[in-house]
Amino acid sequence: MLMDIRVTETVNPALRGRDLFEAEQYVEAEIQLRLAVSLDPKNAEAWYNLGLVLYALKKLDEATDAFKNVAFLNPYRADVYIATGIILKDEGKAAEAESSFQRALRVEPDNPDAYHQFSVLYGETGRWEESLSAAKRLIDLRPTEEVGYWALSGACQELKRYTEEIDACRAALRLNPDSLPSLEGLAWACAETGNYQEAVAALSHAIQIKPDLPHLHAWLAESFAELGNLEGAADELKALAKLDPQLATEVETLIKKKGVPS
């Protein structure tokens, strides 16, 4: 039986390489997948996995070449154009990345990963309206995954559409009540609209999850102060002082300037 397993691994370097990639053993995965494509140059899946491995190893040029081989063998795979676009985006080639993502949608018009990448790309290039539109389409396609709501929340925050941001964060929290990014986004948007009660609730929950993040205590101290809860603000300043004394001093000064004693 052991002999059968060893033989299978030997004659299937593509499968072995895939398993090593999934185990994040990238160097070993590269060896196996290079062997796989040398034995079978028409194995598009092995080329694709090799591209993923090379990307993980930050060998971007070689990863791009691997993905080009996939596209040559099978030009109807949206995932390869998305992967290529991500590399182009990482290299600062926004226009070329956009073209690659558009090609993915020509192959598969409702590919949610393409819309996700569009939302990220447009956000990174300051095209927030387009980022927001892509995020909404992503939510339409994957309504039960948080990532679309996070993308929408970020775009709404940049566009100062705080009511929409609140709705996006609440929707994400219905999927995962302990989502730290969603709790932070909700707290920020609520504070911007003067809803400090909900901001306090969101921040208090976030601190239960990650009590060692100074900025959470800083925001909560300010929110308590806005509500006139001086005891709560003082408690958060004390907690903040243990994590970041300088930030605690800055927040205390800010609270005093607003006319609310710490």
Describe this structure in words.
The protein has 262 residues and is mainly alpha-helical. It has a domain at 211-262. The protein is built from 16 helices and no strands. It has helices at residues 2-11, 13-22, 26-39, 44-56, 60-73, 78-90, 94-107, 112-124, 128-141, 146-158, 162-175, 180-192, 196-209, 214-226, 230-243, 245-257. Helix 2 packs parallel to helix 4 (44-56), helix 3 (26-39) runs antiparallel to helix 4 and helix 15 (230-243) packs antiparallel against helix 16 (245-257). It is elongated.
Percent strand equals under 5%
- Low-confidence runs: 1-9
User: Major sheet, described briefly?
Assistant: none
Strand tally: 0
Order of helices and strands: HHHHHHHHHHHHHHHH
**Helix proportion range:** over 70%
How many helices? 16
- The Cα radius of gyration reads 24 Å
Question: How would you summarize what this structure contains?
Answer:
The protein has 16 helices and no strands. It is an all-alpha fold and 262 residues long.
Task: Based on the model shown, name its key terms.
16 helices, mainly alpha, 262 residues, disordered N terminus, elongated, single chain
What layout of secondary structure does this protein have?
Blueprint: H1 2-11, H2 13-22, H3 26-39, H4 44-56, H5 60-73, H6 78-90, H7 94-107, H8 112-124, H9 128-141, H10 146-158, H11 162-175, H12 180-192, H13 196-209, H14 214-226, H15 230-243, H16 245-257
Helix pairs in contact: 2-3, 2-4, 3-4, 4-5, 5-6, 6-7, 6-8, 7-8, 8-9, 8-10, 9-10, 10-11, 10-12, 11-12, 12-13, 13-14, 14-15, 14-16, 15-16
